[in-house]
């Protein structure tokens, strides 16, 4: 009975990931739906989230225009060969070096906080690129804080508990534009292999070519999205801060043999010098032993990227 009642909070999505309508005027119901989708799936789509469809359309337009530029112009924002950071344009596949790993070009740049933005890595091909990305950053931050607020309350904590656990106003938002050209090699059709994101929470939009899949109940499920929806992926740090209560969404991206797919995930993540672990309020008392070790985010990233033990 209790279970049946709980099930009502997320829209039935036959064969698909949960969809949460954020325009529902009953905020408690929205919060419960977000909590339930994060406990059971770790990946869901939000619709009617308040971010204007026109802004999303323009974001996709300026990013697509960047990837249409000649290689020499894209190289203007290339990631320097000796860089220790992710920011900049990189290409993985053209010379065959990416074989077996990924088949995509990437553009990474921080979009928040303003003090961490390096405009040197923002394309200047379109006069709108800056304005559109700055506005999207503000909107995504607001959406992210609302979702983290509901997730905090779902843990029985104050609304800002997860945001504070991640470093409050030092939380960074990293834009990644991924360009997956048509992939002729049928043995290598994974643009992004099976993984969970190592940051805290990810917000993804993509062009009309579908390819994202979520792993749920031991099978791959196509993630359907429309022009106005945003896919939310709960990532490692939310799982760890919640002491395992929230699930991180396992996912991968497939490729198309004929069409170009472009996706725009934004990764919310702590600053590298911030320590993240289970929130102290959740691990008091004998029944609540911490399930994860706290780590500097810098160390967590290094350990995970090198496949080393984390706990
Ligand atoms: O392109 C996609 O849909 C997924 C990309 C992804 O999972 C990632 O970059 O972490
Ligand atoms: Fe991912």
TrEMBL record:
InterPro entries listed in its UniProt record: DIOX_N, IPNS-like_FE2OG_OXY, IPNS-like_sf, Oxoglu/Fe-dep_dioxygenase_dom, Plant_2OG-oxidoreductases
Pfam families named in the record: 2OG-FeII_Oxy, DIOX_N
Keyword Nucleus: no
GO molecular-function term, one example from the UniProt record: metal ion binding
Region (Disordered): 1-20
Family assignment from sequence similarity: Belongs to the iron/ascorbate-dependent oxidoreductase family.
Protein name in UniProt: Fe2OG dioxygenase domain-containing protein
Organism encoding this protein: Eutrema salsugineum (Saltwater cress)
């Amino acid at each position: 009975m209790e279970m049946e009642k709980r099930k009502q909070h997320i829209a039935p999505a036959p064969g698909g990931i949960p969809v949460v309508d954020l325009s529902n005027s009953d905020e408690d119901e929205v919060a419960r739906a977000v909590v339930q989708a994060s406990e059971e799936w770790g990946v869901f789509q939000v619709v009617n989230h308040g971010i204007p469809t026109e802004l999303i359309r323009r974001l996709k337009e300026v990013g697509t225009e960047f990837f249409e530029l000649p290689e020499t112009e894209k190289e203007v924002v290339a990631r320097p060969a000796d860089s220790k950071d992710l920011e900049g344009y990189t290409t993985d596949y053209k010379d065959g070096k990416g074989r077996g790993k990924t088949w995509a070009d990437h553009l990474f740049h921080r979009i928040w906080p303003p003090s961490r933005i390096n405009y040197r890595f923002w394309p200047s091909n379109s006069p709108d690129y800056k304005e559109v990305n700055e506005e999207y950053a503000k909107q995504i931050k607001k959406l992210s804080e609302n979702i983290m607020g509901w997730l905090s309350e779902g843990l029985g904590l104050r609304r800002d508990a997860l945001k504070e656990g991640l470093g409050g106003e030092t939380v960074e938002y990293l834009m990644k534009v991924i360009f997956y050209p048509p992939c002729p090699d049928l043995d290598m059709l994974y643009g992004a292999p099976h993984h969970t994101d190592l940051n805290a929470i990810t917000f993804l939009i993509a062009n009309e070519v579908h390819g994202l899949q979520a792993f749920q109940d031991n099978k791959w499920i196509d993630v359907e999205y429309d022009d106005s929806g945003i896919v939310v992926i709960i990532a490692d740090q939310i799982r760890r801060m919640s002491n395992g209560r929230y699930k991180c969404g396992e996912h991968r991206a497939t490729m198309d043999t004929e069409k170009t797919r472009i996706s725009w995930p934004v990764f919310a993540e702590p600053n590298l010098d911030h320590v993240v672990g289970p929130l102290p309020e959740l691990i008091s008392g004998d029944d609540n032993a911490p399930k994860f070790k706290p780590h500097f985010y810098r160390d967590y990233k290094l350990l995970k990227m090198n496949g080393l033990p984390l706990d």
